[in-house]
Amino acid sequence: MTHDKTAQDKRALHELTIHAALEGMRSGEFTSVQLTQALLDRIAAVDGNVKAYLRVTAEKALAQAEKADRRRAAGDDAPLLGAPLAIKDVLATSGVETTCGSRILQGFMPPYTATAVARLNDAGMVMLGKTNTDEFAMGSSTENSAFFTTHNPWDFDRVPGGSSGGSAAAVAADEALGALGTDTGGSVRQPAALCGVVGLKPSYGRVSRFGLIAYGSSLDQIGTLTKDVRDAALLLNVIAGSDPLDSTCLETPAPDYTAALTGDVRGLRIGLPDEYFIDGMQPEVEASVRQAVAELERLGAEVVRISLPNTDKALPVYYLAATAEASANLARYDGVRFGYSAGADSMFENIRRTRGEGFGAEVKRRIMLGTYALSAGYYDAYYLKAQQVRTLIKRDFEQAFTQVDVIAAPTSPTTAFRIGEKVDDPIQMYLTDIFTISANLAGVCAVSVPCGFDKANLPIGMQLIGPHLGEETILRAADAYERATDWQRHAPALTGRAS
């Protein structure tokens, strides 16, 4: 069951897009305090079932909203002035607990703020709170959170995807106008598809990773979850750009991404890869994505059949590269410098107990996989070989983008699965990211947009992949498709059973 969102001027405040809310505040229709209170009321009304937030910072949010209203009254018109957003709890926020969904960081108050969050603050954001995540962003369902599972707003019995499931669910349930997430192997795009919202993963190096608590440093990228494509462009305008605090962040100037939203895709070449339409995927997903591509063709794009021959190797490559980096990155949690400490008598016993009690099962599994792959005698056979094949995957994309401008594919092979359905089968869980991980391995950009529903009324997402620094092109295509369809007008009725 869904309800159609009516024209924007008739929407409740919590249903607004970011750009509609900004227009309303600029015209004096309502204030940031009124808007923020409406969002806080919405969270109070529905988050007991959705469970999108690990913590709601209501007092801080209202204070920021009051400041935003004063700034606007003084003539300030910052890009996001007064807009209430949510932040995934893997991004450091000074003075606000940041846990990464893990007990090992419970109570941790960062002394600094992530660059992407700081840029949103400077642009006038109101922070509603920190959203739930799979522990250290390791998961595809948000069931790996140490605290609780987030529920999909379309059906409370189903997962919202992961690891940015809290951010995706918050946006889908109108508990935030937009949110930041992170994407290491699909963790923005897959939950966006499963929750029926727009999820953008920028190119590697386009957005600073400073203050993002690392999982896989060569794969991690901060992205956005929004109600429409224009909002994704607005947020990217703010968070993109060079940062001296992150040596992997590119110095290439970021353009105005909203300028690319022309609604015109005539002459755009869209590649349809054979390897992304496979046996075993949900038939409704394939049908919806093919229909979406046909719509883009109707709008004037040219569809080209292409091949990405090393796609079948992406999953094993990812789970060697990512876990190896996780093994190194998570070595810092020793019970001495920050976070949880078991308090044992000897140093080594304290480290053993702290990590044993503080990390969940999936994090331990990935640390052990990565440590094994990096160990003497196995490094060349596993980690080095994975890096060599990763280069082949990257070359596949480079070759493809000599023929096409954008690659279209499903975001997820299925719609949202039931809570508990895959939690005891890691391989089946890992396979849910089969269509998203290649973009991270190649460092290219990608966006997921709603493109239909299955017979159970669960959202389906289409992924548009672009070359490195090709965000303008994928946003242009996504926006044109969105304008020609009405999938983004549907909202969940928030029904089902939630525990």
Structure description:
The protein has helices spanning 18-26, 32-50, 58-73, 115-122, 165-172, 189-195, 229-239, 283-298, 314-329, 347-358, 361-374, 379-400, 426-430, 437-442, 471-484, and strands at 2-4, 53-56, 84-88, 126-131, 178-182, 198-201, 222-226, 269-273, 302-306, 406-410, 445-453, 459-466, 490-492. By secondary structure, it is an alpha/beta fold. The protein has a single domain, classed as Amidase signature (AS) enzymes (Alpha-Beta Complex), CATH 3.90.1300. It has an 11-stranded mixed β-sheet, sandwiched between helices. Strands 1-13 form a two-stranded antiparallel sheet. Helix 8 links the parallel strand 8 and strand 9. It starts with a strand and ends in a 7-residue tail after the last strand. The mean pLDDT is 95.
Quick description:
The protein has 499 residues and is an alpha/beta fold. 37% of the residues lie in helices and 13% in strands. It has helices at 18-26, 32-50, 58-73, 115-122, 165-172, 189-195, 229-239, 283-298, 314-329, 347-358, 361-374, 379-400, 426-430, 437-442, 471-484; strands at 2-4, 53-56, 84-88, 126-131, 178-182, 198-201, 222-226, 269-273, 302-306, 406-410, 445-453, 459-466, 490-492.
Order of helices and strands: EHHEHEHEHEHEEHEHEHHHHEHHEEHE
Question: Going across the major beta sheet, what is the strand order?
Answer: 2-4-3-5-7-6-11-12-10-8-9
Low-confidence stretches: none
> What name does the CATH topology carry?
Amidase signature (AS) enzymes
Q: Which percent band covers the strand fraction?
A: 5-15%
User: First CA to last CA: what distance?
Assistant: 20 Å
Q: Count of DSSP E strands?
A: 13
CATH class assignment: Alpha Beta
Q: Which structural category fits the helices and strands?
A: alpha/beta
- Specify the CATH homologous superfamily: Amidase signature (AS) domain
Q: Helix segment count?
A: 15
Radius of gyration: 21 Å
Number of domains: 1
Residues in helix, %: 25-40%
**Largest sheet, described in full?**
11 strands, mixed
At CATH's second level, what is the architecture? Answer: Alpha-Beta Complex
How confident overall, as mean pLDDT?
95
Specify the overall morphology.
globular
